[in-house]
Amino acid sequence: MTKKPRHIVCITKNGTNPAYQGARIGVRRIAEQAGCRVTSLWPQTPDDPEEQAALLRAALKESPDAIMIAPADPARLDPELELARAVGLPIISFVSRSAAIAPDCFVTSDNRALAEGIAVHLFSALNGRGRVGIIEGNPASETSAPRTEGFMAAIDGAPGITLAARGVGYYQRDQAAMATKAMLDKTRDLDGMLVANDFMALGVIDELRQAGLSIPVVSVNAMPQAIESLHNGSLLATSAFDAMKIACTATMATLRLLDGRDVPENIMLPVEIVTVRNCAPWERGYEDRPLPVWEDIVGR
């Protein structure tokens, strides 16, 4: 009798951000290697926790073997996560998690440190002097506040840098463009932009170009579209919060849990600053990027 393949349900925050496309591709590629079936789901309204909750409720009726999820809100999905926990399903979170219901494993990177590092890189390019703007992510996301804190820590440590303006782009390109336009309506006296993810940075660049401004922009993710922007000079640098690698690692943790093996409660992936000089490893599309190896990340 043929053994039924394991079924993993993976729920991401949206279908608009290319970084989450990379995450879903990574999950599928790792699962396929192990002969597992993956159902990838996301809300049609980006980052809508109510839709995510409904997707999770529906998924639980299909009796999957494990749930992988990046919650759009730290609390709204708790009733559904409690249901998953009650029937003994492994819960693996990546990028973000519930504040109250600890997953069996959580995979991410240090959001505060990577934001501070990319900001310092911008300030170095500005020779330590200038007025900068910040475009923040979604306030409901676990990643947003620490990235803003990292930006602010870098500003506090740079006497010649002034925070001129800040806006919220909700991690979406169009909303970041609107936030940038509102910022430029108040002041065009800007020397650089700190942006909390690459997808928003594309919107920021769109709006700066529309306004006829050419100033350095830095962001976070190192997704393929950002690498193109490095090459055309519209993006100075990006910090490699690698959603695909994070999701691949979360998938490997899921498979280990299903095999009854131990996994760490938290896995923190290192990041590096990606510029046009060192971007070759990130130039490949998500289907062609090399897959991470568990032992290289966790050490066992």
Write the SSE topology:
Layout: E1 7-11, H1 18-33, E2 37-41, H2 49-60, E3 66-69, H3 78-86, E4 91-94, E5 105-109, H4 111-125, E6 130-136, H5 144-156, E7 161-168, H6 173-186, E8 192-195, H7 198-210, E9 217-220, H8 224-232, E10 237-239, H9 243-258, E11 266-269, E12 273-274, H10 294-298
Parallel strand pairs: 1-2, 1-3, 3-4, 4-5, 5-11, 6-7, 6-8, 8-9, 9-10
Antiparallel strand pairs: 10-12
Provide a brief overview of the structure.
One of its GO terms (molecular function) is carbohydrate binding. Helix 4 (111-125) crosses helix 5 (144-156) and helix 6 packs across helix 7 (198-210). The chain is of the alpha/beta class and 300 residues long.
How many strands in all?
A: 12
What structural class should be given to the helix and strand makeup?
A: alpha/beta
Helix content: 40-55%
Spatial strand order of the main sheet? 2-1-3-4-5-11
Which shape, going by the Cα principal axes?
A: globular
Gyration radius from CA atoms, angstroms? 19 Å
The helix tally amounts to 10
Q: In CATH terms, what is the architecture of the largest domain?
A: 3-Layer(aba) Sandwich
% residues in beta strands: 15-25%
Question: If you consult CATH, what is the topology of the largest domain?
Answer: Rossmann fold
What does this protein look like?
With 300 residues, the chain is α/β, with parallel strands linked by helices. It has two domains: 7-109 and 243-270, Response regulator (Rossmann fold, 3-Layer(aba) Sandwich), CATH 3.40.50; 111-239, Response regulator (Rossmann fold, 3-Layer(aba) Sandwich), CATH 3.40.50.2300. Helices cover 41% and strands 18% of the residues. It has helices at 18-33, 49-60, 78-86, 111-125, 144-156, 173-186, 198-210, 224-232, 243-258, 294-298; strands at residues 7-11, 37-41, 66-69, 91-94, 105-109, 130-136, 161-168, 192-195, 217-220, 237-239, 266-269, 273-274. A six-stranded parallel β-sheet has the order 2-1-3-4-5-11, sandwiched between helices. Strand 8, helix 7 (198-210) and strand 9 form a beta-alpha-beta unit. Helix 2 (49-60) runs parallel beside helix 3 and helix 4 crosses helix 5 (144-156).
